[in-house]
Amino acid sequence: PSVWEDIEPGEVDPILSISDVWKADADPKKLNLGVGAYRTEEGKPLVLNVVRKAEQAVVSDPGTNKEYLPMTGNAEFCQLSRELAFGKSSTPVQENRVVTVQTLSGTGALRLGAEFLAAHYPCKLVYLSDPSWPSHLTIFNKVGLQVRYYRYFHAESKGLDFQGLISDLCSAPQGSVVVLHNCAHNPTGCDPTLQQWRAILEIVVQRQLLPFFDSAYQGFASGDLDEDAASLRMFSAAPGMELLLAQSYAKNMGLYGERVGALSVQCLSKRVGSRIEGQLKALIRPMYSNPPIHGAAIAAKILRDKDLYEEWKVELAGMAGRIKAMRQALYEELQRRKAPGDWSFILRQIGMFSYTGLTREQCEIMTRKHHVYLTMEGRISMAGLSASRAGYLAEAIVDAIK
Ligand code: PLP
């Protein structure tokens, strides 16, 4: 018999497995709102024009080769990513006390940051929003950190449970790591207002918590890159602030499979920063040695070239705009069918997802009877919807809740 005869099958990923089942479904009405990937009105994946142009330029540049990158990745990409998130005029950036390394997209940045904290941060407690993106729990558990939750979603209003959030962070032990989605919270689509962010910052400072920002949707929430970085920049500017930031270009540049991201650590001096960089390298070297060149070269080209950057902003606003239009379309279709209850939260929620409040049983009806695929906590990816399917989705919802 195999030495693995009794091996367990391994847990199925709750989100990625949805697409597998969806693919196997032969019904032409099927609708995949499970995975968080942008789709065109025709339901097709989108490669941004600006990405095609940048890629052409990278490929045809005679200076392009296939040499290894340094362990920390493409230095220009790192610098431009840091500036994109923190802002060019950010004091910590200008004082060279934000260290940035290229990572395998947002997941890689979170994992590397988690490994770094497990090895070099005294407090082993990590607070996640309840609910949060499922990989947060598994990533932090994997490196041996202990995960706790702070209240986040208010089931009744389908909005932010601000009081719950504040009270849970107030009772977090000093030094705890707190994971914050800088915008377009996944899965709830509920973000704090700027005023609420200020209150959260106050507690973070008071309790000496360490913020770990997860920025997977910069530009995708509002359509504006600066607006979506406001929470991070507010925290970063606070005196004495140290923090981590995981960035992903999967959604905002549509570079999903290219695995383009960055991890930044803001600290208090250049000297400490360069030591942190040394420790990050020590984690990277035995894990994957150095990151891939292609996607980061595309992103760097777009971030560096003024015309391409402007074009990117327009395409990004276009994606964000289509998602907002889908919120409106779904809301109107539900109204038209006189769906019981108040569905205006769909318009208030932000970013790629809407957290519908559908129960597991109702989600099962959606999938089994109507071939609408969504996560079993009732999260739907608005980016997977099209104007022509909004009516169908509304009908399925009305049937599932009756
Ligand atoms: N963080 C959040 C909250 C996400 O929703 C995602 C993607 O779905 C990621 C991070 C990272 O994704 P990736 O590893 O594809 O960049």
TrEMBL record:
MF-aspect GO terms: L-aspartate:2-oxoglutarate aminotransferase activity; pyridoxal phosphate binding
Keyword RNA-binding listed: no
Recorded GO CC terms: mitochondrion
Domain Aminotransferase class I/classII large: 29-397
Reported cofactor(s): pyridoxal 5'-phosphate
Keyword hit for Amino-acid biosynthesis: no
Pfam family, one: Aminotran_1_2
EC assignment: 2.6.1.1
Cited SUPFAM superfamilies: PLP-dependent transferases
InterPro entries, sorted: Aminotransferase_I/II_large, Asp_trans, NHTrfase_class1_PyrdxlP-BS, PyrdxlP-dep_Trfase, PyrdxlP-dep_Trfase_major, PyrdxlP-dep_Trfase_small
Substrates-to-products reaction catalysed: L-aspartate + 2-oxoglutarate = oxaloacetate + L-glutamate
Keywords: Aminotransferase, Pyridoxal phosphate, Transferase
Gene Ontology biological process terms, A to Z: amino acid metabolic process
Residue ranges of the TM segments: none
Record family assignment: Belongs to the class-I pyridoxal-phosphate-dependent aminotransferase family.
Other comment: In eukaryotes there are cytoplasmic, mitochondrial and chloroplastic isozymes.
Subunit (UniProt): Homodimer.
Protein's recorded name: Aspartate aminotransferase
Species assigned in the record: Chlamydomonas eustigma
